């Protein structure tokens, strides 16, 4: 057994197709198939359900695959660590982020880049459960999202809390001029609006749905999307208003839009930037964590919601 066979196995899981997995592995399809068959022979197990095409993994294959993912993630982390030792503080940092978190990741990266200009970044959007798993298996170096602190303490992650500035209602004044006179929007007022919202599977959306449900109200999304870009376009043309965490958007990118705060109870989970415990975090992750934490603590409290100019 060697690391390449495990990489091929992980690529097959991701691509769900032998040909595409071979392309992702930079080998021919016969080579990939042969190496995976050799792995099965060495382990004495059938890992893959084969027909005319890839038909998934056997029960034994899924167990082996879970180990392969972790081993490959640690291997990739080791390569990054070695590269940083050879070249100094440079390399690619892998960041997993939950959608609609209460910080602008781009601004955070820009601030850290002032201290560590040699860092590059690969950002993946993941769900809450996926983020904990990715951090635990070292498939991402840094996580940004909403967490239960008891879980983080149990897993011994380092964390920097992110300020919870609440939720803003973002709107275009040409389409919703009546909102200009609203100082603090009530749940009843928000529930009466047509809305542009993230999909119901997202943690932030579940938080919103639970709050309004407990208040005996129901949200009316006119547009749902996993794409923040699509939601903001919907707000701009007047399809509806958006509910977003304060601090998530870069205000200057949306000069035509305005926002007002929503009267809503805080989330039960806490927004945080997270890395593995000292000694387990890679050098790149630890330096990013330190620089990011310094920048976050230096930020002034969020100004009262107003025009996004």
TrEMBL record:
The domain of life for this entry's organism is: Bacteria
Q: Write out the GO cellular component annotations.
A: cytosol
Keyword Transcription regulation belongs to the record: yes
Per its UniProt record, what Pfam families does this chain match? HTH_1, LysR_substrate
Does the entry feature the keyword Transcription regulation, yes or no? yes
Which positions fall inside the HTH lysR-type domain? 1-58
Molecular function as annotated in GO = DNA binding; DNA-binding transcription factor activity
Q: Which UniProt keywords apply?
A: DNA-binding, Transcription, Transcription regulation
UniProt record similarity statement:
Belongs to the LysR transcriptional regulatory family.
Name it. Answer: LysR family transcriptional regulator
Q: Lineage in the entry?
A: Bacteria, Pseudomonadati, Pseudomonadota, Gammaproteobacteria, Enterobacterales
């Amino acid at each position: 057994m060697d690391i390449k066979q495990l990489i091929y196995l992980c690529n097959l899981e991701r691509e769900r197709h032998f040909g595409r997995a071979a392309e992702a592995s930079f080998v021919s399809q016969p080579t990939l198939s042969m190496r995976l068959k050799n792995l099965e022979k060495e382990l004495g197990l059938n890992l893959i359900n084969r027909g005319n095409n890839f038909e998934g993994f056997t029960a034994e294959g899924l167990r082996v695959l879970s180990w392969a993912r972790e081993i490959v993630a640690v291997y990739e982390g080791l390569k990054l660590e070695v590269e940083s030792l050879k070249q100094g503080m440079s390399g690619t940092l892998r960041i997993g982020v939950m959608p609609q978190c209460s910080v602008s990741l781009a601004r955070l990266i820009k601030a850290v880049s002032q201290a560590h200009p040699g860092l590059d970044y690969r950002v993946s959007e993941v769900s809450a459960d996926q983020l904990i798993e990715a951090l635990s298996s070292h498939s991402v170096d840094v996580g940004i999202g909403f967490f239960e602190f008891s879980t983080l303490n149990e897993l011994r992650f380092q964390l920097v809390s992110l300020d919870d500035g609440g939720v803003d209602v973002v709107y275009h004044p040409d389409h919703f001029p009546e909102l200009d006179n609203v100082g603090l929007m009530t749940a009843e007022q928000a529930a009466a609006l047509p809305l542009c919202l993230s999909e119901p599977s997202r943690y932030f959306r579940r938080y919103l749905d639970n709050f309004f449900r407990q208040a005996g109200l129901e949200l009316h999304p006119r547009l749902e999307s996993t794409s923040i870009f699509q939601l903001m376009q919907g707000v701009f043309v007047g399809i509806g208003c958006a509910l977003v965490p304060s601090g998530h958007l870069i205000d200057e990118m949306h000069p035509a839009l305005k926002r007002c705060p929503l009267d809503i109870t805080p989330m039960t989970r806490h927004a945080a930037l997270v890395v593995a415990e000292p000694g387990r975090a890679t050098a790149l992750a630890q330096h990013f964590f330190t620089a990011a934490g310094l920048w976050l603590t230096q930020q002034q409290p969020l100004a009262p919601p107003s025009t996004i100019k």
